[in-house]
Specification:
It contains six helices and 13 strands. The protein is α+β, with helices and mostly antiparallel strands. The model has no long low-confidence stretch (mean pLDDT 93).
């Protein structure tokens, strides 16, 4: 998927957790093989060219496309799996894959799991008694600095996802024009229970711009956001402060 993954696993019976960890890593490689738009022989590339049907693909393809359709509905079309008229589920695959890997390890008995895929993180359980997981949110305008620190205290599961132009340039597309999104934002960070959705919502809100993006994030249950504009203005949803620390 063109990025670095890191996994931090705590507790559980070592043999079972190690086996689940190996399965989770193998699963991430499999996701890349199935969904990569950079591989001509991936199932998604072949599906986009009309060489395969969804039914002929791995069952995960139908699952991801159904989730993407839901994300498109909830975002009123601001999230899309179409890029230049071609199927491209990249915007949802990474978050879904990271969340799936984390849940696979937790199901094996780990008491705390953190899986980070290119800065987007799924947290489950805790790293230790009385200690919550904490995630630093990079400051998009000050390399090496932090815009905030998110604490998962009190949550059995929490995800943090960021979309923006600071590191990868203008890569977020406005699905209504097919061109790079024209936005006053440089970054949107979303905090939600599941990374599958946090990843989608960060992308959609970034494309919307600060005013509409903030309004829309406020309308979603269990979702909080931090938006940074090119003018160095920080806007937050009303409940974000409860997750900072």
């Amino acid at each position: 998927m063109g990025t670095v993954f890191s996994l931090d696993v705590r507790g559980g019976e070592p043999t079972a957790v190690r086996a689940a960890l190996d399965e989770a890593v193998a699963g991430l490689h499999q996701v890349d093989e199935v969904f990569s738009t950079y591989r001509e022989d991936s199932q998604v590339s072949r599906l986009a060219r009309g060489e395969l049907t969804v039914d002929a693909c791995a069952p995960e393809v139908a699952e991801v496309l159904e989730l993407a359709a839901e994300a498109e509905r909830v975002s009123d079309g601001w999230f899309s799996t179409s890029y230049e008229g071609r199927l491209d589920p990249t915007g949802i695959v990474k978050g879904w894959a990271v969340e799936r890997a984390a849940r696979r390890i937790a199901a094996a008995g780990a008491s705390g799991v953190s899986v980070n895929g290119g800065g987007d993180v799924q947290l489950l359980g805790t790293p230790g008694a009385g200690r919550p997981w904490r995630v630093g949110v990079s400051d998009p305008l000050r390399p090496g600095g932090l815009a905030a620190v998110v604490s998962a205290a009190g949550a059995a599961e929490l995800a943090v996802a960021t979309s923006g132009s600071a590191e990868r340039g203008a890569h977020v597309v406005d699905p209504r024009t097919g061109r790079s999104a024209v936005t006053d934002l440089v970054a949107v960070t979303v905090v939600a229970p599941r990374l599958t959705w946090a990843d989608c919502w960060a992308t959609a809100a970034f494309a919307m711009g600060s005013r509409e993006g903030l309004r829309w994030l406020e309308s979603l249950d269990g979702v909080e956001g931090l938006l940074v504009t090119a003018g160095d203005e920080v806007r937050c949803t009303g409940g974000l402060a409860g997750w900072l620390g």
